[in-house]
Amino acid sequence: MTPTMLDLATVYGPARTSSNTFWKVSSRYSGGRHRGADYREQNESKTASVVTDVVAILDGTVVHASPAPGGALGGTVVIRGRDADGDVVYESHSHAVPSVKVSDKVKSGQRLGRNASWSDAAKWTGRRVKLPFLPITWAGIHDHVVFSRYSDGAWNTSRKVLDPVPFIKRATAAQIASRIQNATEGDTMTHAILVDNKHYFTVGAEFITHHGTKEQADLVRQVTSVKDELHKLSSKDFISLIGGLGIPQSVLVIKGGIVQAGVLNPETGKHASNSVWSRNRQTVALLKAITTGK
Length: 294
Prior knowledge:
This protein has 5 helices and 22 strands. It is an alpha+beta fold. It folds into 2 domains: about 10-160, Distorted Sandwich (Glucose Permease (Domain IIA)); about 170-290, no CATH class. Strand 20 and strand 21 (about 270) form a beta hairpin. The chain is globular, with a radius of gyration of 21 Å. Mean pLDDT is about 85; it is low at about 120-125 and about 135-140.
């Protein structure tokens, strides 16, 4: 069965970053510090979190896919991967319902399951839960991400942990870069563009990608062949360029003639930051819609 691949920029992007950041000081955490980073999506009324997918950040092998010892973290998936220097590192996702099993090989961006919590009745749930052996009520729906040099780093508080954010940023940049390279096969005209001194894009004859921040744009340029100067254009000139390349204006977000953040993601049909549109991805999405009726 072909694994489901998802956009890291969406799953672990700014819109899902919670206030429970890495190493946050609070008496509710073991040792007074939050050992990971939490990611969640709120409902439309912003009154609660909703169940979303849990996604692998690194390539690696699943070494744990069941409740963590002690129960406080609920279901936990641990992946043995490697960091940017090639050293072994363990990526953990807690409060998760895994759809993978131990020894599975996973790729960056692959769906691992969904986020939820372990309830008193030993069932997966999206509610806030209070376990008999815990002094606090846990917010049910979120993905608690931990990186460590140890396989038990998620639940063994004596283990040193690492900030997940740099890992997420590098993996997101690599995923975007891979899509750019796939979209630009035979396309030698690839350019980095800054629109209205605000929005970063990479553009070719067959694709366009948006970068949420300058840091993300620079990371992507480091791992692709986009080495030319950064071209600065106004919204008007950028829209003209896109039209000249034959890329539909609907790929962009344009309000009152001004280009906004994001481009169309063909798979979801929605505009998003750190997303890539290409003719190839658009064709695949259309074929899927025709053959599945969705």
